[in-house]
């Protein structure tokens, strides 16, 4: 390459993808070969200056948008002071302030405490440790289709084999799974509760169960919403048998569902709540928040980690909580969800053979794609066709679901309404193009 060529050389998405494939493990793949140059609120630009409307938010992480100025300011100010001392060695005020805020906003009136870690999987693992330390019991109950992380214990909790659990066993024992109530697939609340009581008779006594962990809305599982009556029934069963109820709010928290936490829709106070993703505008931090007598069960030194509660991430999280209040993000979440719901239900009415259901709680929205309008005939092929072509339409989309046939929408809760409408229009055109292409193939 000549000096002139070097001076004008610019890496492309293709060249970056080749470099990544050469050095990054295959298991850490990427959905889109679009390498990010910069981002602002709900828009992302790649290294070739292509623009995308972000309907993924880094998997519900950037609820307050990309590069929010208040988050940038908080992170910058903290970095000028110090970046790390270890909260377990030399603690710092910003970590205490965040714990105070999290305890304050957690649902329910019980006295609470918090612990800070780095990731959602760490939060889940620690919630199980805390529940077992408190109860002196072994069993953990989770749900089919649930997702709780990629570590060994959280994979055991996760109720889906591919791609999360395949080739990675053996997994920890004393983990049990129940059917998650989903009306579309004829699994009623009564069916799930009956399975729970059967489990108590067949596999593990209720007196040996430490915790039940549930996502109030399943994330990777397909955006299925746990009915209010089911959450209330679980709360009563846990109370009757002294079982710890853990709400995994990692994807549903911090305004995503129109409440600060999704379990507030059912007016249920969990014993423990796991928090991550939307907590800090993209900075890596997570937390477990729960009732004081349960949180204090582990001995000093039994919880923690070198980087847990990074002061920089704590500063970002405090800024995010201020943004949520100042910019009325909960109301905004419901407004965004209503706009999506109107457009997507209209699309369903036009294409009933392809869309089995539109699900929406706040700005957590999913559409389930089927064949011939039959919920028992999932359509993952069409789902992946839409996801694969999204880049051509300037969109970032995600799939999920037990059968990989759900498209989920997780836009930043700060998205400008004009850009939201533009993105939805792009999606509708994308959907129509894929349908027409498939109809042409069939004919």
How would you describe the overall organization of this protein?
The protein has helices at 3-7, 13-23, 57-60, 69-81, 93-105, 120-135, 152-157, 189-202, 228-241, 292-295, 311-326, 329-350, 380-389, 417-442; strands at 36-40, 43-46, 51-54, 112-117, 139-143, 175-178, 209-214, 244-248, 272-275, 286-291, 355-361, 364-371, 374-378, 395-396, 398-400, 406-409. A hairpin with a 2-residue loop joins strand 11 and strand 12. The chain has a 7-stranded mixed beta sheet with strand order 4-10-9-8-7-5-6, sandwiched between helices. Strands 11, 12, 13, 15 and 16 form a 5-stranded antiparallel beta sheet that branches. Helix 4 runs antiparallel to helix 11 (311-326), helix 5 (93-105) packs across helix 11 (311-326) and helix 12 (329-350) runs parallel beside helix 14. The longest helix is centred in the last third of the chain and has 26 residues, at 417-442. It folds into 2 domains: 3-64 and 328-442, Alpha-Beta Complex (Aspartate Aminotransferase, domain 1), CATH 3.90.1150.10; 70-326, Aspartate Aminotransferase, domain 2 (3-Layer(aba) Sandwich). By secondary structure, it is of the alpha/beta class.
The radius of gyration computed from the alpha-carbon positions, rounded to a whole number of angstroms, is 22 Å
Q: In whole angstroms, how far apart are the ends?
A: 50 Å
| Strand-pairing-aware structural class | alpha/beta
Overall mean pLDDT score?
Answer: 96
Low-confidence stretches: none
Record field, number of beta strands: 16
Q: How much strand?
A: 15-25%
Main pleated-sheet profile: 7 strands, mixed
